[in-house]
Amino acid sequence: MKIKATAEDRMIAFYRTISLSLTSFMFLMVPAGPSVIYKSLLIIVLFLFAQVFTFYYRRLRARPRVLMLVISIELAGIIVLTLFTGGYDSPFKLYVLSPVLIAAGSLSFYFVWSLLLGYFGIVAALCYFLPGSAGKSFSEILLTNGNMFLALALAVIVMQMVNGIKRQREEANARTNDTMEHIKSLYHIVETSSQHDFMNIGQVITDYVVKLTRLEKALFWFAKKSGEPAPESRQTGWQHEEERFLFMELEKHEHEWRLQREPVFKSLPGLGDFLLMPVRMSTRFVGMIGVRLESSEGLEGRRWYIQQLMFLSELSAIILERHELGVIENRLIITNEQNRIADEMHDSVSQSLFGIVYATHSLKQSWRKMSEGELEEQIELIHDSATKVAKELRITIYSLSSKKSGGPSWLGMVRSHLKSLSRLNDVEIELKITGDDFSLPYPYHKALFRIISEATGNAIRHGAASRVDVELSLKPKWIRLSIIDDGVGFDTDLIWTESEDNTGGLGMKNMQYLAQSLGGDFQLSSSENAGTRILISIPVGVAELKNA
What we know:
The protein is an alpha+beta fold. It is 64% helix and 12% strand. The chain contains 19 helices and ten strands. The strands form two sheets. The chain has a five-stranded antiparallel beta sheet, sandwiched between helices. Strands 6-7-8-10-9 form a five-stranded mixed beta sheet, with helices on one face. The chain is elongated. It is an enzyme of class 2 (transferase).
């Protein structure tokens, strides 16, 4: 497999080439020693070996033990080269900085300093026995090369400091990217949730708290709310029998929580140390979101947890407030629509029906006294009135039906969503639909939309797909959905394992849960560099029977 060279690999290769070129040039300029032809051949061999070692350094950066061995071999070669090209006076003694800097940038602190001190000792000891060192003490030899040893030590210290800063930045970037992905997924799940799902919003958020903080236990305690039912308090990580005790302890401090506006560290008897953050909407106190802290956590780690909980607290408050406003708005819409329909029925249909009833009653009383022509005329009048009422009812029904009135339908919303997704991400999304969704109950609409949205979003966001094919078959008794992409794919065994460990795969578990909650079957197949295929079959009516 070809390893793509990074900017760091290119910089290392450039430095090694320049340093070897300079030391080789100095070696050529020394008048003493072998002939120029011999020196030139030696330099050519050195450049070939340098290319080989550079190649293996790039290949072995993920295998530290083997990398240690290769660096040690190159260092030994440089020591031998130094001894046979002048000892103390060899220009190649400075080239040792190349493998040492690579070790300082990739390997452990102890290995680097062991390598450097070993080099100092071996060079000093071997050079001591060279003919040119006769009469010099060991301390004199160390002092003679002290500047070189000091320069090497300082270079290693600087390199390790730079590498430490780089590692911290990479970890911070990776953690930030991971956090943003989780938050986007969380917001997407909550955005498409229904009233039934919303009652379990605490469980969704606590699962994400565990994923974001990488702690084992989290909670979302909701304060009691008068009137309408509130979402249920939820936890992640505790045993079922511990849950009741946990929330009872939190309820004991309800008055304290209602006054709290900043994150608080609290020790709960028998449960451990907690970091808790109040969740407040603009109109009321909602509850507390929190994690149980590990005893080994330092100050920096706790600051990170505070940042995560503050963000999730604000996000939760926005989501809850938005949901409540949406509920109120829907009620107002329904009330206004009911009033409008009542007014229309009263002003038109009701009056016309009253006229028909009155005319029918009159005809019943007087039809024996009427001539045949008068009777036919009266029946025709009642017929015209009934036809008019039927027409007015049809108009009212059409105004209520999105299918009949030409308003936005569920399938239209699916098409619009995928079209926007395709345009925003420059991805080809092909949607094929057979059948009609008009008689499909709302829970199926909601679940299918969430599955389609989640699967296509994953294909683009994680799979880097350039094409996604969505095929939906709607039949009176069965729904079949297939979503196929040409993305990078993944190991399906790994995704389920990560999901169990709370490290990934939550989107797939959500789709599986949605399909199974309707009595359906969820099938996932994928492999690396071969795309992903999701097949779902849902029997219509099974969910209603289960909930009956």
